[in-house]
Design goal:
By secondary structure, the protein is mainly alpha-helical. 78% of the residues lie in helices and 0% in strands.
Length: 131
């Protein structure tokens, strides 16, 4: 991915490669490899692994958007902690700001991933009692 970004930068020019593209690509790569690490090293059943990976994926949006907010000057989206606030989400919706949808999707994904993780924990407890 980094090589592809460097090739694109070689043809387009500009100062976005090290200041914008590489930090975002590094964050994306980190999420990707942490997901693989969970699959490989977490000694648990598929429900718990799925819940942990869903939890990881649900945090991708606030992390990436917060990173974009730090890197880019004109980002007007919510900060990391505002993704957890239903009040902020509704205020953005009332103001006509479409970024409220990101908070809504994050909150739904977070609730679903926590439920899936809870199911996985219960399944692991049951599996431990049988052994």
């Amino acid at each position: 991915m980094f090589l592809l970004l460097a090739v694109i930068w070689a043809f387009t020019g500009g100062d976005w490669l090290f200041s914008v593209a590489y930090p975002l690509a590094l964050a994306g790569t980190a999420f990707f490899w942490v997901g693989f690490a969970v699959l490989y090293w977490l000694k648990a059943g598929p429900w718990l692994k799925g819940g942990v990976i869903a939890l990881l994926a649900s945090f991708a949006t606030p992390v990436f958007n917060s990173l974009c907010g730090l890197i880019l000057e004109d980002m007007g989206g919510p900060s990391f902690w505002q993704y957890f606030s239903a009040r902020d989400m509704l205020a953005r919706r009332a103001a006509g700001d479409v970024s409220w949808v990101n908070s809504l999707i994050f909150q739904i994904m977070l609730a679903c991933s926590l439920a899936l993780t809870a199911i996985g924990v219960i399944a692991e407890i049951r599996r431990g009692k049988k052994a």
